[in-house]
Amino acid sequence: MLAPAINLSPAPSTTGAGIAGEKLAEISDLLERRRAGFSLESPFYTDPDLFAVDMRAIFGEHWIYAASVAEVPEPGDYVTVEYGPYSLVVLRNDDAGVNVLHNVCRHRGARVLTEPTGTTGNLVCGYHSWTYSPEGELIHASAPGEIDFDKECYALKRAHGKIVAGLIFICLADEPPTDFDETAKIFEPYLAPHELSTAKVAYQQNIVEEGNWKLVMENNRECYHCDGHPELACSLFPTWGLTDETVPKHLEDVWERNQDAQASLEYRCRRYGLPYEVVEELDTRVAGIRISRESLDGDGESFSPDGHRLSKKLLGDLPDFRLGRCSMHLQPNSWFHFLGDHVITFGAFPINEHQTLVRTTWLVADDAVEGVDYDLDKLTHTWKQTNLQDKAFVELCQQGASSPVYEPGPYMKSEYQVEAFINWYVQRMQEHVA
């Protein structure tokens, strides 16, 4: 069940064109004087010109999580992915790969496909019926009395796309960063047993958060605020990100329970030959990553009030439901939870400097039957509520960052992944602006 469409029309300023050298110098100064261990200055969250540079430097040059193959299971299936000024068609091809095409007709620029998802053979622009093949070649553009022209010069513009362990990534750069392949080698063994290529979409939720995309990502990268997630705290230990030295008094019992559960999980992973170790290279490589397999509270199986499984069907060739969650963060726009009974993917897609679309997709085993093997409301309840709570937190931060009295504040020790995200962002922006 895919979510309905949401209007993602960006503000005119997000085209990224015409940023004056003086403005770039100002942005360069902001990046240079960024204080380590502190949040960014206000323009990073509020300035439309800086947002335009974000779109070119980050979303225009790096590999971006777009969708899962479960969203485009058959040849001809497509999803449209929009962020900033860009609209892309991600189309499953006959070779079990994806074609990534800019959703801009080469006649007068109309959107070619206007639905968020669907199935198509050829791509037909609804304005003047220019028709393109699934590979983007122009195959029909005629009108009575017109002089012939070279159709080969008017193919849809293409972007790069690749599928890794059932996840689809796209890159708009002419020459994409090459270290993504090395990052893929890190996470493929963790994801492979879940066999996402055989999963199906149970539900998809689109939420527009009134906040800059970086605030969305910062909020995701820490659990300092997890007291504000009562549903999630039933199964996710709220001590995530803490150490022996930083556990507050009121969480000491939870910390001990977490340690015992993690030791039990690691024992089972070793028995089954599943990787579980923490790999954390969030700001030390271009394709930044953190991945690990971590215990859940209660029965340790899923995001439910008692930690019990939410679907009766195991994914892939997993041997056991009680495998906690494999948690993965990828820079710059995604995070994931891979469980024994289902998978949840999250993608953040900037709209403008103060709005971000957060797309959450729940995947279950292909043979899982709604109402028999899982209850959809129960499957989605915890993260639906958590997403709404996170939306409220992000919007509070956006309001604060827009205040004349805002100034960067210090990150706590448990927020080290927020610091790593900002370090990664500053490095990539400096490389671009330079």
TrEMBL record:
Its cofactor is Fe cation. Keywords: 2Fe-2S, Dioxygenase, Iron, Iron-sulfur, Metal-binding, Oxidoreductase. Residues 64-170 form the Rieske domain. It comes from Leucobacter tardus. InterPro entries: Rieske_2Fe-2S (IPR017941), Rieske_2Fe-2S_sf (IPR036922), Ring_hydroxy_dOase_asu_C_dom (IPR015879), Rng_hydr_dOase-A (IPR001663). Gene3D superfamilies: Naphthalene 1,2-dioxygenase Alpha Subunit, Chain A, domain 1 (3.90.380.10), Rieske [2Fe-2S] iron-sulphur domain (2.102.10.10). GO terms for molecular function: 2 iron, 2 sulfur cluster binding; dioxygenase activity; iron ion binding; monooxygenase activity; oxidoreductase activity, acting on paired donors, with incorporation or reduction of molecular oxygen. This is Aromatic ring-hydroxylating dioxygenase subunit alpha. Coiled coil: none annotated.
